[in-house]
From TrEMBL:
It is found in: Cell projection, Cilium; Cytoplasm, Cytoskeleton. It comes from the Eukaryota. PROSITE patterns: ENKURIN. This is ENKUR protein. InterPro entries: Enkurin_dom, Enkurin_domain-protein. The lineage of its organism: Eukaryota, Metazoa, Chordata, Craniata, Vertebrata. PANTHER family: ENKURIN, ENKURIN-RELATED. The keyword Zinc does not apply. Residues 137-169 form a coiled coil.
């Protein structure tokens, strides 16, 4: 039988020759010989960088100053292992979450948002002072006023005078001013007390300071001061 020949044979040959160029794989027929002067030198194939411009228009190129708001980033080495360990030791343990199981299969849901968990902040009288506390405060206030009235009556019988708040404040200011003057004099004493006069003067100032501090503390501690005629 005759051999089978495809009808696309000529078309395939044409396309193969069409996409093929001369000397594509074997190279050109003649190659120019390199000149002996163009020999390979050291570091000739490395990329060359442009020379740095040290001066431009007769002026040196200085780096730009950072703005005033610039803050350099300081990298601090931290020991995160010790930090995490300390945080775990000092941290509060997680509180258990309350669940409610409503089926035999163990289906559960959170108890707090379900409405079954009592929340006292939603009560109508939440934050309102109870009546017994209000009554107790009124009784204590009334007892204090009665006590002050009895004390004033006793003082009137004994002819004792009560210092007013203005007089008490003025006396405190005067005592503190006197203490500052004596303390200033005490600070100006010489370090070396080699004579009996210096020792006596120092002891006298110390006694005055102690007495003034005692009087100031006594007046500041007591709100009411009584003076006997």
């Amino acid at each position: 039988p005759l051999r089978y020949i495809s009808k696309f044979r000529e078309l395939a040959k044409h396309e193969a020759e069409k996409n093929k160029s001369q000397w594509k794989t074997m190279g050109p027929a003649k190659v120019a010989m390199p000149s002996p002067n163009d020999f390979l030198q050291k570091s000739s194939k490395e990329p060359k960088l442009a020379p740095k411009k040290k001066e431009q228009d007769g002026k040196r190129l200085l780096p730009l100053l950072p703005p005033r708001t610039y803050h350099p980033v300081i990298h601090i080495k931290k020991n995160f292992i010790n930090k995490n360990a300390v945080a775990v030791i000092k941290g509060e343990p997680k509180k258990p979450r309350h669940f409610c199981v409503d089926t035999r299969q163990g289906d559960k849901y959170l108890l707090e948002p379900s409405g079954l968990f009592p929340k006292y902040i939603k009560k109508k009288n939440y934050g309102v002072i109870p009546k017994y506390v209000t009554q107790r405060n009124e009784e204590m206030k009334r007892e204090k006023e009665e006590y002050q009235a009895r004390v004033l009556e006793e003082l009137k019988k004994k002819a004792m005078k009560t210092l007013s708040e203005e007089e008490r404040t003025n006396i405190l200011k005067a005592l503190k001013k006197k203490w500052e003057e004596i303390n200033h004099a005490y600070q100006g004493l010489p370090i070396l007390t080699d004579t009996s006069y210096k020792r006596m003067h120092k002891e006298e100032l110390e006694l005055q300071l102690t007495q003034l501090e005692h009087d100031i503390a006594a007046i500041e501690k007591h709100q009411y001061v009584y003076i006997a005629d």
